[in-house]
Specification:
Blueprint: E1 12-15, H1 19-30, E2 35-38, H2 46-51, E3 59-60, H3 64-69, H4 75-82, H5 87-96, E4 101-103, E5 108-111, H6 117-129, E6 133-135, E7 139-143, E8 149-153, E9 156-160, E10 165-167, H7 183-188, E11 194-200, E12 204-205, H8 210-216, E13 219-229, E14 235-245, E15 248-250, H9 252-256, H10 258-268, E16 271-276, H11 283-291, H12 299-307, H13 311-320, H14 323-327, H15 329-337, E17 339-343, E18 345-346, E19 354-359, E20 376-378, H16 392-415
Parallel strand pairs: 1-2, 1-10, 2-6, 10-20
Antiparallel strand pairs: 3-5, 4-5, 7-8, 8-9, 11-19, 12-15, 12-18, 13-14, 13-16, 14-15, 16-17
Helix pairs in contact: 1-16, 4-16, 11-15
Length: 416
């Protein structure tokens, strides 16, 4: 452990107790600097714990190149963080906490017990042993006229003047867990360029008929392929499952396409999605099967037997295709393979799993220090990047916290 010089006897302030903030606290305290970590909630890691409900997907075993491509236009920037702390390094770090992991059939990586709480408990124990002081119920309010940090606490407002500050305040989703984006105007007032926060990994809104909405809301669309295009014209295709909601679509398959769909909405006011409802059948096979005499069978029964379409898929066909198209075997087969869906909006930001936008790359140094506020660093989801679910979000949050912490340590050393 490196002991800091006397001029750095004042603690480092880390604001935000999610994965990025906790990782930064670990790195900075391990380097010998005293750390005070502040969080607005009664306990840290609340969004992390909720993300682990149903199975804590911590990272992904995908090869480096496709893994990095998940970050789209921010891939090079995020790649800088991952170069020192990638998915395999994250797994090793988890193992160092005494938590085993395994790779699921989808390539996703989970703790062996599938839970987030034991990992968080082991981590907090390590941080306490390293001397990190955690201050809950401390909501950051910005700075006073002298540059001191302002916190609203149960005992009223208090001021802190740390040696350096790291902000890890999350994005704009799940406000009830502390990520409410209230930091954005505070930074903008100080000259920091912020890209507006938008929903990511979110549900999308369509205009269903009352029949479809009332009869089939909440039912899964299993084993389908969804296709859309990016604004650059690149086709993007994913296979998986979605859920038909009362006013649109959501689920892991839709989340994986949320960035290009949202970009279409922002550019054109609507987004176009096509669904292959029978990916294991060719269009020719479907056409041939649907052209045969029904022999008294209803169309629904024929679609179930010959195309494997359940009730919700059949209802979606009737919702999106005209009667003339459904009556024509050739056109119906084409519709099953490429069912057009028009989306007119996203679900509200606070319902999204994560958010896009945040502090722009141009506002930061390579070490994630704010150009406009020397000594103040940023990490995690409040930075301008996004990724689909599947472990990619968490991996980059951990890595950015580590990267910002090393940037802070280097800056403190240069100040000596």
């Amino acid at each position: 452990m490196t002991k800091p010089s006397a001029q750095h006897a004042q603690p480092i302030a880390i604001i935000g107790g999610g994965p990025a903030g906790l990782m930064a606290a670990e790195v900075v305290s391990a380097a010998g600097y005293p750390v005070d970590l502040y969080d607005a909630m009664p306990s840290v890691g609340r969004k992390f714990l909720l993300a682990g409900v149903g199975g804590m997907n911590i990272t992904h075993s995908e090869a480096a190149a496709p893994f990095l491509s998940r970050y789209r236009e921010a891939a090079r920037w995020v790649g800088d963080w991952l170069s020192a702390f990638d998915a395999e390094a994250l797994r090793s770090w988890i193992h160092g906490l005494g938590i085993d992991t395994f790779i699921g059939s989808s390539g996703r990586v989970f703790p062996t017990d599938m839970k987030a709480a034991p990992l968080l408990r082991a981590w907090l124990k390590r941080l306490r042993e390293q001397g990190v002081h955690i201050h809950n119920r401390h909501r950051w309010l910005g700075w006073d006229e002298n540059g001191a940090l302002r916190f609203d606490t149960t005992n009223g407002e208090t001021l802190k003047t740390p040696t350096a500050t790291l902000l890890a305040l999350g994005g704009g989703s799940w406000a009830r867990l502390g990520s409410d984006g209230s930091w954005a105007p505070l930074l903008e007032a100080r000259g920091v360029e912020i890209r507006s926060l938008r929903a990511s990994n979110c549900g999308f809104i369509s205009q269903w008929s009352p029949f479809l909405s009332e009869r089939f809301a909440g039912q899964p669309l299993k084993q389908i392929i969804a296709d859309t295009q990016s604004l650059s014209g690149d086709g993007i295709s994913r296979r998986g499952e979605a859920i038909l909601t009362h006013d649109g679509l959501e689920g892991s398959l839709i989340y994986a396409l949320s960035a290009p769909l949202r970009e279409q909405l922002e550019a054109r006011g609507e987004a176009n999605l096509t669904l292959d409802l029978a990916p294991d059948h060719t269009q020719d096979q479907l056409q041939q099967a649907l052209s045969q005499p029904r022999k008294g069978q209803s169309l629904s029964n024929l679609l179930r037997k010959k195309a494997g379409l359940d009730g919700v898929k059949v209802a979606l066909l009737h919702e999106c295709l005209s009667k003339d198209v459904i009556a024509d075997a050739t056109k119906l087969a084409a519709g099953i393979k490429a069912l057009p869906i028009t989306l007119i909006g996203t679900r509200p930001l606070d319902e999204a799993i994560s958010s896009a936008g945040g502090v722009c790359r141009s506002a930061l140094t390579d070490g994630l220090m704010l150009q406009a506020l020397p000594g103040t660093f940023c990490a995690g989801e409040m930075l301008d990047w996004e990724a689909p679910t599947g472990g990619y979000l968490l991996t980059a949050c951990f890595a950015s916290g580590r990267h910002a912490a090393h940037g802070m340590i280097d800056w403190l050393k240069d100040k000596r």
